[in-house]
Amino acid sequence: MCKRQIQIKKNGTVEQIHGVGVDLDKFRPMPEMASMKRIELGIPNNAFHIVTAAELNKNKNQKIIIEAIAVENKKDIYYTICGNGPDEDELRKLIHEKKLEKQVQLIGFRTDMNEILQTADVFAFPSIREGLGIAAIEALACGVPLIVADNRGTREYLQNDKNGLICEAFDQDAFVTAIDKVYSNVEYRKKLADYCRESVIQFSTEETVRTMERIYSTMDKRIS
């Protein structure tokens, strides 16, 4: 397959911008909030909690996490899915078929993700295709490790075995293994969490603004 070549004007340049930026003051670790928010969500304090925030559709691939939890068959693994979408009924049916109603919940679109993320032990982002996933970067900013599917977007911010784990999108066994690795090893989980926030500094709003200011300054000099 031939790669498409991008032509630029003479003396032109190409700049990489890491998205629109994430507010690291809003999305940050707030451990004092975790217990209260778990009570609100119905998540036991000693449970292992997986969170996803994404539209409910086939591309977002939430079903593979549900199926992996069913294979794990551990009653203290909980999964909260935030978002709306066309696959809601299908996901509810799958949850029922796997007898996971007490462990997996769909809670719709939320505006308090910075609070919900405080309850998470891991953030799952198993999309088949993805751009720069701001929801996953927000999770990292809150100190929450990731379990993701390998795609163009996740390669931008996921450092395998440093701030999370990468799986192939349709490899259920890989997701089972990844969940179990983070679930069963508290020290490993902490190691991942400790690096999460540091790993996304480049995606902060401040860094995006600095990059844009530098680009516009360079353009002004060229014009003048």
Question: What labels describe this entry?
Answer:
single chain, about 220 residues, alpha/beta, six-stranded parallel β-sheet, 9 helices, 6 strands, globular
Compressed to H and E, one letter per element, the order equals HEHEHEHEHEHEHHH
- Provide the β-strand percentage band: 5-15%
Q: Give the beta-strand count.
A: 6
Distance, first to last CA: 42 Å
Q: How many helices in DSSP terms? A: 9
What is the CA-atom radius of gyration, in angstroms?
Answer: 19 Å
Q: Structural class given helices, strands, pairing? A: alpha/beta
Q: Largest beta sheet: what is the strand line-up?
A: 3-2-1-4-5-6
Q: Helical residue percent?
A: 40-55%
Biggest β-sheet strands, sense, barrel: 6 strands, parallel
Mean of the pLDDT scores?
Answer: 88
Shape: globular
Low-pLDDT stretches: 14-19, 209-216
Describe the fold and architecture:
It is built from nine helices and six strands, in the order αβαβαβαβαβαβααα. The chain has a six-stranded parallel β-sheet, with helices on both faces. The protein is an alpha/beta fold and about 220 residues long. The relative contact order is 0.17.
Q: How are the SSEs ordered, and which strands pair?
A:
Elements: H1 31-41, E1 48-53, H2 62-72, E2 77-82, H3 88-97, E3 104-106, H4 113-116, E4 122-125, H5 134-141, E5 146-149, H6 154-157, E6 164-167, H7 172-184, H8 186-199, H9 205-223
Parallel strand pairs: 1-2, 1-4, 2-3, 4-5, 5-6
Give a brief description:
The chain is α/β, with parallel strands linked by helices and 224 residues long.
